[in-house]
Design a protein that fits this description.
Length: about 55
């Protein structure tokens, strides 16, 4: 996680507002299940895409 989020934010001098999930920080993220399927996508603190699973 550090390699993909915190380290790039530090390299850009933005670790105060990006790079980790903390209150007050900006973050876009995805949630995945145990099989690495995307469950939802969140942008600006709001869910923008809820994946539909086919059974």
């Amino acid at each position: 996680v550090h390699m993909a989020s915190l380290n790039p934010a530090r390299a850009l001098g933005q670790s105060g507002r990006l790079g980790s999930i903390e209150e007050g920080k900006q973050a876009d993220l995805i949630a995945i299940d145990d099989e690495f399927n995307v469950v939802f996508t969140m942008v600006g603190g709001k869910i923008v895409c809820l994946e539909q699973k086919e059974f």
